[in-house]
Specification:
Elements: E1 2-8, H1 27-35, E2 45-51, E3 56-62, E4 75-76, E5 82-90, H2 93-104, H3 114-123, E6 133-141, E7 146-151, E8 160-164, E9 169-172, E10 182-187, E11 192-197, E12 200-205, H4 222-235, E13 243-246, H5 251-264, E14 274-279, H6 284-296, E15 299-304, H7 307-312, H8 314-321, H9 326-344, E16 349-351, H10 356-360, H11 372-384, H12 390-399, E17 404-406, H13 412-419, H14 423-427, H15 433-437, H16 448-453, H17 461-464, H18 471-474, H19 477-489, H20 493-497, H21 499-502, H22 511-523, H23 527-530, H24 554-560
Parallel strand pairs: 13-14, 13-16, 14-15, 16-17
Antiparallel strand pairs: 1-3, 1-9, 2-3, 4-5, 5-6, 6-7, 7-11, 8-9, 8-10, 11-12
Helix pairs in contact: 2-3, 4-13, 8-9, 8-22, 9-12, 19-22
């Protein structure tokens, strides 16, 4: 995982805006200065390649997880005509390397991303059809005078595009690198490939699976579903640096940790995976994360924070996540605190369970879906919005301390298989006997086909069939109550009454939202930056509460109501 920054003039010489006067003497100096703002993403090395004759510059901040001795970027082809800066992991790089070696006679990849150059040499812009992983990259072909920029299908890895007042194009992993340079900034669309060639900029969609536009009809095959997820986790375990797994005690992170443990013990029967959970004292998640840690015999740590610790981090969190969305802020604060602790233990990579709720309809408001068709449409909407919410939060929160987060549920092969399961199978349910035994009324359990697929010694039943607890709730019910109260008390009535006037775009509906928005505007002033943020809300037209907390939804209230 890294941070990248690229500048190019589509039509001629890169010129520095007069507004900077003589403070900046070259575009290389400016690019290096701006990339420093995301150096937390890549603390191990900074690489710069300038191509003055073509008005292109590359900067890469590297976090060395694979092949640390040879993988410094930007990378160049053997003849020096192709330059690459990439952020992320290419999970099929070993298979691709073997294929390349058959054709070339010998091929030793300098890093997993090195295969992008080889794939370009063989397939040109079609290279994106051959690589799998989480990535954003920029590749420049000096011979063809062509720049390619692309982002992975779901947008696990962040990427932004901006234009300055001199017409130069800027691309970076974080928006803050563009904030005082570009007049307009936008989120780079996932699953697309942008080309700059001969003064023309074109952008095409390369990822268009049928499940986006059609209602799936395939019945769930639980055996195959299990195999697909195990395969995804296996591919995500490649690392030359110490790693571990998040373990909230919910079914998603618990499954990933359990599967990873089983795979790693194929080589070492005594292997103990490092696992981590975070929360307030006596957080609901701790009970279940301990059960799983004991079950899989992991080397487990609990990171306990206080309300005051979290509130202190609000401004820092908005800076790092580049968002004022309520759910993003609430969830990111505990995650940033956890990431700092994990990095202090010497880890560089962590596994996580993000994506399962979007794929299987795990959020509690999905209980109120009126029919299978609407259920699937909402799944598609959530999956295609991951880059604005869970992926954004998880990536930027952990990378704020140079910790790479991997999400096996969003492996393209697993995602496509699971999204092609008919929605009826995802909506159907089984009675949650374990909830009933504890005095809670649950008519059906969300993500039941995922749970059923692993109902064979992967997890204890009380965790496997535990009802969904959203992360910001699971860290402690008083967390949301406290941060909401603090934010509301920070905004006076007169100011909030002018919300529509002050913020006509994405007008805050609550004082909590207003407070986060005000901090965001201080850090990232400008209309175009505010437009990069989308608010996460349940389906109000399904009769759901607009508060994004899982505790605000009917299914949670009903499940925990005394008989």
């Amino acid at each position: 995982m890294c941070g990248i920054l690229i500048v190019i003039s589509p039509v001629g010489e890169i010129k520095i805006s007069p507004k900077f006067g003589k403070r900046i003497r070259s575009i290389r100096e400016m690019a290096y200065k701006q990339s420093k703002k995301q150096r937390h993403r890549g603390p191990d090395h900074t690489g710069v390649v300038a191509i003055p004759e073509d008005d292109v510059i590359f900067v890469q901040e590297r976090l060395a997880v694979l092949l640390p001795e040879t993988g410094d970027q930007p990378l160049k082809s053997q003849d020096g005509s192709i330059i690459l800066a990439a952020n992320g992991e290419i999970y099929n790089y070993l298979e691709l390397s073997a294929e390349i070696a058959k054709q070339m006679g010998k091929y030793e990849p300098r890093s997993d991303c090195d295969v992008i150059i080889a794939m370009y040499e063989q397939f040109g812009s079609e290279l994106v059809q051959h690589i799998t992983g989480m990535f954003s990259f920029a590749l420049y072909d000096k011979n063809a005078k062509r720049l390619l920029v692309s982002r992975d299908p779901i947008g696990i890895i962040p990427l932004y595009k901006g234009v300055d007042d001199m017409g130069n194009l800027w691309f970076s992993s974080e928006m803050k690198c563009l904030a005082d340079i570009c007049d307009t900034v936008e989120d780079f669309e996932p699953g697309t490939l942008l080309t700059v060639e001969k003064g023309t900029v074109t952008q095409t969609k390369y990822y268009q699976p049928t499940w986006i536009s059609e209602i799936p009809t395939s019945k769930a095959d639980l055996t195959l579903l299990q195999q697909k997820l195990v395969s995804a986790v296996r591919s995500h375990l490649q690392s030359d640096a110490p790693f571990g797994s998040l373990l909230s005690g919910g079914v998603d992170s618990s499954l990933i940790a359990s599967i990873a443990t089983q795979i790693l013990r194929e080589r070492d029967p005594n292997y103990r995976l490092k696992t981590y959970s975070v929360g307030l004292e006596n957080a609901p998640d701790f009970k279940y994360s301990r059960i799983v840690a004991d079950y899989i015999n992991s080397d487990h740590r609990e990171i306990i924070f206080k309300i005051e610790d979290g509130i202190d981090c609000i401004r820092e969190t908005i800076y790092h996540t580049e968002s004022y969305d309520i759910t993003t802020v609430r969830c990111s604060i505990p995650m940033i605190l956890m990431a700092r602790f994990i990095k202090s233990e010497g880890l560089k990579m962590i596994l996580s369970g993000e994506g399962a709720d979007e794929i299987f309809g795990g959020y509690l408001y999905f209980h109120q879906a009126p029919n299978a068709q609407e259920f699937h449409h909402e799944l598609v909407n959530r999956v295609l919005s991951l880059h604005k919410f869970d992926c954004l939060r998880a990536n930027k929160a952990t990378m704020s301390y140079g910790l790479e987060l991997r999400v096996p549920f969003l492996d393209t092969g697993f995602l496509d298989h699971a999204m092609n399961i008919r929605p009826e199978d995802k909506m159907g349910g089984v009675k949650n006997q374990f909830a009933q035994e504890n005095g809670r009324r649950v008519a059906r359990i969300e993500k039941h086909i995922l749970r059923a697929a692993f109902a064979n010694d992967f997890l204890p039943d009380q965790v496997l069939w535990r009802q969904k607890e959203q992360f910001s709730d699971g860290v402690g019910y008083s967390w949301i109550d406290s941060i909401r109260s603090y934010a509301e008390n920070s905004v006076d009535d007169a100011e909030f009454a002018r919300a529509q006037e002050i913020y006509p775009i994405n007008t805050p509906a609550t004082k909590e939202a207003f407070y986060y928005r005000a901090l965001f505007e201080e850090i990232f002033p400008g209309k175009s930056f505010a437009q990069t943020v989308t608010k996460w809300v349940p389906r109000l037209d399904w009769g759901c509460s607009q508060d994004p907390s899982g505790r605000a939804q009917t299914a949670h209230t009903a499940a925990y109501k005394d008989k």
